[in-house]
Amino acid sequence: MVWDKFNRSNGGVTIDFYPNTLDNIFWSKEGIVAVGGSDHVPRLKAIASDERRWDKINLKTNFFTIEEIQLQLPLTWKNFSVGEEMSEAYIHALDWSPPGLGKHKRSVLAVLTSNHILSIWECVGKPEIATDWVRSCVINHALQAHYKDMDKRDPEESEHDHFERLRAKQRIRAFTWSPSPPDPSLSGALGDCTARSPYLAVSNDRGEVLIIRLQTPYDVLEPETSHWTLSVAETFSVDVSETKQSPLSACMPVTFKWRSPFVDQLAWSPWALDSSNTLTSILAFTLQSSLQCTSVKLNELGTHTDVVTTSSALLLGEISDTQATGCMKWASKLNGTKEAFLVYPTRKSFYCLQAQPGLSLDIQISAQEINTPWDEIAGLCFVQDDNDNTSVQIAYHLGSGTDRITSLALPFTANSAVGSSTWQHDLLRGQRRFSDEYNLAGNVMARAYGLCTSPFGDMVAVNVSFHPSDGVEYTTSSDEVSYLITSQCNDDLQFALAGSPSNPYELTAEALLSSLQSLSVREPEALADENFVVEQVMQALDLAELPSSYSKLGQITEDTPVDIIVRQVRQNILFNRDSVQSRLSQLLKYVKGDIPKTPPLDATIVLKIVTEIARLPHFVADASFLSHSIMQIHCLILAKLQARGGNSDAEASTSEEEEIESCEICRKNIPFESLRWAKCVNNHQYPRCILSFLAIQTPGTAKSCSICNAQYINEFVMPAFKVPERREPTNMDTGAEEDDPMQGTSDQEPHVSLARILFAACDRCVCCGGKFTG
User: Can you provide one Gene Ontology molecular function annotated for this UniProt record (predicted)?
Assistant: First the structure.
C-alpha cells in the first residue's frame, strides 16, 4: 500500500512487483492507495528516485494461520477446486470499506485471494508500520456458520456428499461493499454527521449471493462486543437463462466446464430514500454473461434493521451483448434527479444503466460503441464537476498508451466522447522516459492494471508497467517494477471539491489536505485568500449554513437513547460553523508549510467543548469516577475562561480548586495549569488529553492525530472501556465453582456515561479533524 501523506507534486511511485489482476488499485477515504499484486521479492539494491514524499509498505496477504484456514483433505473431483487446493493465494480482488469499521473509525481493506478466501485487514496502530496491519477476520467463517445452521442434509443425501457441498458453498467468488447507509431521520439536515456500518455482499461457488452484516469491536457504545462479529443478513439464489449460457472457450470442455453457475462480479449503488422514507439501493451482478439487478431495502424495526431483496431483473432484451470485458461500477454519487449510473463494458460496447433506486426498477440503457474485442478493461473511475456532470474514465489493459478515447460523458449520447484524459498524457510521458532510459527508440508498450480516483475525485491514479514492444524482455522477479501515476483532473478549486462526499461525516481531513496540497503546487494563487478557500470548502461540503452556536435536539433525560446524546454532542462540538472553520484554517497552515511544532489550541473551540460538556445532565457525569473527573475539569476550564472574560462569579468559583487528579507516581495533587501539559507538586510532568483534558499518566495509553500529532487518551486501552473477562473461579480444594467477589466492580465504565459519550462523539481531532493513530 502507498499513500502520499503530504502530497507536494503529482508524479509516480515505483511498485516492486507486477500486478497479477486487473482493477487492482483502490483509494481509501483516508488517502491510502491499496495496490494488489503478486509476490514481492526484495531488491539487492534500491532504486534511487524522488519518492520520499510517499510512504510505502508491503503486506503479505497469502499467509494464513491454522485458526484462519484449517487443513482439510482435498474434495472429490465433483467438488474439487484448483484455486482452493493448489493456488498460492495471490490477490484476486480488493477494495476499501467506507469509513467507520476500523479502529478509530478508519476504513478496512477486504482482500479476496485466489484460494477463495475473503479476509478483512485493518490498521491497529500507525498506517506506515507494516506490522500494525493485521487480518481481523475471515468472511468465509460467516458462510460456514450460516450453512451449518440453515442447510440441513436431505435424507437421500449421504453425509460425505453433504459435507462436500457445504465446503463448496463456502468458497467466495466475488464481493462488494455497500456505501454507508445514511440515517433517514437526519438525511438532508444541516451537519448530518451520522453514519452506520456498511454491508458486504459476497457470492459463493454455488450461485448464491449473501449480504453480510459486520459488527466491529471498536464501538465505544457497545462494550459487550470484544471481537469482530459476522452474520448473514440476507441471501438469495440466482439463475441464468438457458439461452444465455456462455460459450465454452476451453480446449478441454469436460475438464473446465463449471458444475454450477456462479456470480463473478458484484456492484452496489448508492443509497436513496423512497417516498416512504425507506433506504433502497440496487445490487448489480453478472452470472455467465448475464447482467442482472435486484433492489435492496433496509427495514427499520426498532433497534434492529432487516435487509430485504426483491427478485432479480434480467437485462437480456435491452443488452444484446453481455460478455463482460472488465469491471462494472456504479458512480459513487447520485445525480441531481437522484439517479445512479452503472457502466458495464462488453466486447462490442459500453453500456450505461441509469436508474433511480427503488423497489420497482425502471432502468434506462444507453450504449457507446467502442470496438475493443482483444483488449480488457483494466479499470473504471468516475469524475464529477461542479455542475454535477458525471463522466467515466476508462483504462485499457493494452491500449491506454495509444490514442483511444478514455473519457465518456454520462449518460451516453452521440457526443459523449470527451477525448483523452490527463492521466493518459502522464502515461505517455512515462513511456517516453522509459524509452530514453533503455534506448528503445520509442518502441515501448504500456500495460494498465487499474484506475481509481481520490476521495474528492480531483485526482486519478493509474497503475501501469512499461515493456519493450519490438523484442523479448528478459527479467527476474526481483526486477519487476510497476508504477503508480497520479494526475490532477483540473486546476480549478471548485472542481477539486466537487467530488466531496454528500455526507460530511465521511469527509476525512487527510483527503482534504492531500487535495489542497496538490492544488497549491499547480496553482499557488488559488489558495492565496484563506477566507475565500475556507468559504469554498464550506459550500462544497454543504456546511455553509451551519449554525455558529450549539443546537438543542431535545431535552436529555435518563430515557434518552445514548446514540441521540452522542449525535447531539458530535454536532455541537465538531459540526458547527466555528469548529469546521477552525479546522479548515489549521489545515491550510499545513498546505502552506507553516507547520507549528505545537499547534495552538483555539480558545473558541475549547470554550465550545467545555460548554457542551458542562451543560450535560449530571446523571451521565455521576455514572463513574472517570466521568466525574472529566466533568469536574471541564467545569474548571469553563470557569477559568469565563473569569478571563470578566465574569466575577467565575472568579469566585475558581478561587478554591478541589483536587481532581493525583499523580500515579507520588500520589500528590496535580493542579490545573495548562491545556497541553500537567505537572504535580513534585514536578512529575505529563501531557494532557486535548479532549478530556485529563493527564495521560500511563505509558502506551495515548493516541495521536495523524496530521497535527495532538495527544488524546486512547479509550481502547483503558481498563474501564475493556470488556471484562468472564472467568469462572474454581475452589482448589473441592473443585467446585464459586462466586468471584471482584466480578463486575465499579471500575468498569457503564453503558451510558460521560466518558463513553465524549469519546464516541469526538472520533476525530478537534484541532484539525485528522483521524487518530495508535
Answer: histone acetyltransferase activity
